[in-house]
Amino acid sequence: MILRSTALRQGRRAVARPIRCLHSSATCLQQSQSLDPTSYSFSSRIQPPVDGDQVARDYQAFKHHQEVTNRIGSVVSPKYQPHTQLTQPPSPDDISLELLLASQSHLGHSTSLWNPANARYIFGVRQGVHIISLDQTASHLRRACAVVRGVAQRGGLILFVGTREGQERIVVKAAQLAGGCHLFDRWIPGSITNGAQILGRCRTKVVDENDKEIKGFEEQLEAKGALKPDLVVCLNPLENYVLLHECGLNNIPTIGVIDTDANPTWVTYPIPANDDSLRCINLIGGVLGRAAEAGMKSRLGQAS
């Protein structure tokens, strides 16, 4: 009896189960069909017409508020961009202690490597490293700019020398601004003292006051020999002692970047600065090139 009642109960449940599913699905279908289709329709709203006078008044109020609030707060100064020193070198009038400090011009060498002749250029010692006085650097750089400008204004030939790695673009840019010559390779000994033998095959030309070539002086130039620079700017004097010695023998003035381990008597116009920093060398070379460019423009302006 128990087994029979259990079997009947399970049979009733099995028969009633699909009927409930069909009933529930039919109910859902009936409810979904009873939804109002108008509820899904979107009504377009009509925008009111725009008043032109109100827009103009709002714009004027915005501009007035902007002018008033722009004067509030701090003034943002121009950012320091080192790459512009090569593309757009600063002029001698732009020399400042802040610019020299940002270019790492004040960093010297270890105190164990210093040259006692540079004692007047040293500001102090910081963690075993000599600190160069930026006042001395600025004053000597301005003096060198005056010399370069004077030579270029009188039509002199300026030679820019930088033989260290990374100084090629610096000397080329400075020579382009000055209208002079550049050297970024090894200096050939005797190029000045024995220039007739080493540079005898180099072509020379005669120019007028406007730097335009004059024809008809080829025979006279062959007997004249190689030209000598009127001023030499050396960015790394430690590696070019032979060049500086030849300039001294021929009474050619020189300008050089002198670090704390170099001898300032090697050059005529020393510039105490960090010769190991390309940023510092880039600044000095660009400023000297701008000074020569100003002198050359002044000469061409007087000629015309």
From TrEMBL:
<dbReference type="GO" id="GO:0003735">
    <property type="term" value="F:structural constituent of ribosome"/>
</dbReference>
<comment type="similarity">
    <text>Belongs to the universal ribosomal protein uS2 family.</text>
</comment>
<dbReference type="GO" id="GO:0005763">
    <property type="term" value="C:mitochondrial small ribosomal subunit"/>
</dbReference>
<dbReference type="InterPro" id="IPR023591">
    <property type="entry name" value="Ribosomal_uS2_flav_dom_sf"/>
</dbReference>
<keyword id="KW-0687">Ribonucleoprotein</keyword>
<dbReference type="InterPro" id="IPR005706">
    <property type="entry name" value="Ribosomal_uS2_bac/mit/plastid"/>
</dbReference>
<dbReference type="GO" id="GO:0006412">
    <property type="term" value="P:translation"/>
</dbReference>
<protein>
    <submittedName>
        <fullName>Ribosomal protein S2</fullName>
    </submittedName>
</protein>
<dbReference type="InterPro" id="IPR001865">
    <property type="entry name" value="Ribosomal_uS2"/>
</dbReference>
<dbReference type="Pfam" id="PF00318">
    <property type="entry name" value="Ribosomal_S2"/>
</dbReference>
<dbReference type="InterPro" id="IPR018130">
    <property type="entry name" value="Ribosomal_uS2_CS"/>
</dbReference>
<keyword id="KW-0689">Ribosomal protein</keyword>
